Amino acid sequence: MENIRITFIGCGNMGCSLIGGLINNGYPANCISGVDIDDTQRLLINNLYGIEMLDNSADAIHGAHVVVLAVKPQKMKDTLLPLREIFSHEKPLLVSIAAGIRLGDLARWAGEKLAIIRAMPNTPALIGTGAAALCANDNVNDVQRDIAESIMRSTGIVIWVMDETLIDAVTALSGSGPAYYFYIMEIMEKAGIQLGLSKEQARILTLQTALGAAKMALESEHDPEDLRKQVTSPGGTTERALKVLQEGRLDELINKAIHAAFQRSQELARILGGDK
User: Fold this and answer.
1) Domain boundary among 170, 201, 227
2) DSSP state of 92
3) Rounded to an integer, what distance in angstroms lies between the CA atom of residue 22 and that of residue 276?
4) According to the model, what pLDDT value does residue 10 have?
5) What's the chain's Rg over C-alpha atoms?
């Protein structure tokens, strides 16, 4: 990654988190630049990280080896089309973190011969505990794959998928996944309050329990099913609670929810790509 110049087009929450991740991992600020149309955001990013901030994408692309596309999905086409000629001369690696925008559509708008990587991060990247999946088109070489992985790894873990359709599965599982856990935490906290705990007590117990369970699963050699069995004593409270969840078909409900997110991700890709 030495002397690789990286430009971020769009410096909202996710773009900002990647910039911060790179800086916190020792990447030089003078090798990073950003573009944002909002004056306040440009000033904020400059003050936080000391990188060059511009209001013009065309100027920022010159000399960039990597361009991270962090604009809203609905704005991607309008962002790329005016830059197509510049891309053809500069030939940077494009890394898109815009949800739902397919590699083929990115190439259609930015240039068919460009090396393009599509990334699907999730919001815990904002605190350095994200999970991202990457998929590359045929123009991406091994060096560029390593560069993209290093950028995304600055805010969490990274996996690669060869089949782009799997990005929709990633979106449904980890992209939307934090909201599923937040919802479960919300329900548990309310139940604790109903049982007599204060809101503060119910909240801290719920959050620490979620953290502890995730940490145990990450650090254990056992899978979640084995861990569940280990903490479920016959005739105990946990067994009674799990029986209610199983009788209520919680497994089927969660599976159905993830499949619904998967289908919606496919629909959005078609809509955002302009498919009829």
Assistant:
1) 170
2) P
3) 39
4) 95
5) 22
What is the CA 204 to chain-centroid distance, rounded?
26
Q: How many CA atoms lie within 13 A of 113 on its CB side?
A: 8
pLDDT tens digits along 211-239:
999 999 999 999 999 999 999 999 999 99
Q: Token pair for residue 92?
A: 């940077």
Which residue(s) pair with 96 in the sheet?
69, 118
User: Residue 161: is its pLDDT beyond 70?
Assistant: yes
Tokens 């011969």 found at: 113
What's 82's domain CATH number? 3.40.50.720
User: What are the φ/ψ torsions at residue 99 (nearest 5 degrees)?
Assistant: -65, 135
Helix/strand/coil for 67: strand
* 6 neighbors 68 (Cβ within 8 angstroms): yes
Query: Of 116, 135, 170, which residue sits at a domain end?
Result: 170
Q: Helix (H, G, I), strand (E, B), or coil: what is residue 93?
A: strand
2, pLDDT greater than 90: no
Whole-number Å distance between alpha carbons of 272 and 237: 48
The CATH number for 201's domain is 1.10.3730.10
DSSP three-state, residue 140: coil
